[in-house]
Write a structure and sequence with these properties.
- By secondary structure, the chain is an alpha/beta fold.
- It has two domains: 171 residues, 3-Layer(aba) Sandwich (Rossmann fold), CATH 3.40.50; 170 residues, Dihydrodipicolinate Reductase, domain 2, CATH 3.30.360.
- It is 30% helix and 24% strand.
- It contains twelve helices and 15 strands.
- A nine-stranded mixed sheet has the order 14-13-12-11-7-10-9-8-15.
- Strand 2, helix 4 and strand 3 form a beta-alpha-beta unit.
- Helix 6 packs parallel to helix 7, helix 8 packs across helix 10 and helix 10 packs across helix 12.
- The longest helix has 20 residues.
- The radius of gyration is 21 Å and the shape is globular.
Length: 381
């Protein structure tokens, strides 16, 4: 795709300075608190009340993160939805409580952006098209929640950064595992100095493959790779919980058990050199048996100079071992609602868990890790 703005081109419909005040008014006071509180469906606002207008683009990825939040926030509505492909069956999505009789449906995202007045768009297209739609939304002055990876090539990532920066809109990536209590507890334990300096980080993302995968998994150019798609989560939570940075990467990936999807990788291993001389390693697979009790098995281990943290995501548990104390489970914080947390920043109430810089940087790291796997070479970060 070609996403760059020309030298004389300007973003369309960039929000006016009063837009943030409108969003805060429409969302209502206390959204930042609501972002960490599990509540039921919200009461509808009084007739004529201003609302935050959300557009959903695509049916691929974690649409539930967006659709699950909208009914809980009285000042937010799903104004319009665009299919990934015109022939997509969206009957299951329409059963979501976020959909209403007023939600308009389009066959193409370009139609949605052209005809609708929106405040925020969520992009969940086949992964290679996420950057294209996000750039188009940014040019219209819309804030963007993009499925990860936000781009599948470094060229598209650069074009997306340029478009978002020029339009002065906010973009986040659906790296929502930062919202999960075990990883937030592990991060706090590191920040509190309970394990000393993090030295060795290891993690795992293991999934069932299921009976089939979408068509775009058959080509690496349309899929993007298992490292940017699934690995971005563990690569992110190793970095986020430990506070360390990646300096170099080497990786391997392959497809040994799913020949009908030649562009797909059913396993991968990624090795990083850390900024303090330490090491990080994540292993990824879609080899989890269908008989396993959960779809995924996510893990994190942080070995520090004075202790050890182990996270078992499927069990929602964090264990701490230190030089002076044996194993004990850490108390978990409340979960964070990803989309509500993002809207709270847009309304000026708090900082979103994922900075725009992190959304771009983690994508770049994963794309370079994929390139390392393809070339068999170490890559500087």
């Amino acid at each position: 795709m070609s996403g760059k703005l020309s030298a004389n081109e300007k973003p369309q419909d960039v929000p006016c300075p009063d837009r943030r005040r409108f969003l805060k008014s429409a969302l209502g006071a206390g959204l930042a608190v609501g972002a960490t509180t599990a509540v039921g469906a919200a009461e509808p606002p009084p007739a004529g009340t201003a609302r935050v207008r959300v557009g959903l683009i695509g049916t691929d990825g974690h649409t539930g993160v967006i659709l699950g939040t909208i009914p809980r926030l009285p000042g937010v509505e799903l104004t319009a939805f665009a299919k990934s492909l015109p022939e997509d069956d969206v009957s299951s999505l329409k059963r979501s409580k976020a959909f209403s009789e007023k939600t308009r449906v389009y066959d193409h995202f370009e139609q949605l952006l052209e005809k609708e007045e929106l405040d925020v768009v969520a992009v969940c297209l086949p992964y290679y098209r996420n950057a294209e739609a996000s750039i188009a939304a940014a040019r219209r002055g819309l804030h963007v929640v993009s499925e990860k990876p936000v781009a599948t090539t470094l060229a598209d990532l650069a074009a997306l950064k340029e478009a978002v920066g020029r339009a002065k809109v906010r973009l986040t990536s659906l790296m929502n595992m930062r919202c999960f209590p075990p990883y937030r507890a592990a991060r706090k334990a590191v920040q509190d100095g309970l394990i000393g300096e993090p030295i060795l980080l290891t993690s795992q993302k293991s999934y069932r493959f299921g009976t089939a995968r979408p068509w775009f998994y058959k080509d690496l150019k349309t899929y993007g790779g298992t490292i940017p798609w699934a690995g971005i989560h563990s690569i992110d939570y190793m970095r986020w919980t430990s506070g360390r940075k990646y300096l170099r990467v080497s990786a391997w990936h392959g497809n040994n058990d799913h020949p009908e999807y030649p562009g797909f990788q059913d396993h991968a291993g990624v090795l990083f050199k850390l900024d303090n001389g330490g090491t990080a390693l994540t292993n990824l697979d879609y080899l989890r048996p269908e008989t396993a009790p959960t779809h995924g098995d996510d893990r994190l281990r942080i070995a520090g100079s004075e202790g050890l943290l182990e996270v078992l995501g499927a069990d929602n548990r964090v264990t701490l071992i230190t030089a002076t104390d044996g194993p004990r489970e850490l108390e978990l914080p409340e979960p964070v609602d990803f989309f509500a947390d993002f809207l709270a920043e847009i309304a000026g109430e708090k900082e979103h868990l994922i900075s725009q810089e992190d959304a771009f940087r983690l994508t770049e790291v994963c794309l370079r890790a994929r390139d390392a796997a393809e070339t068999g070479k170490w890559v500087d970060l």
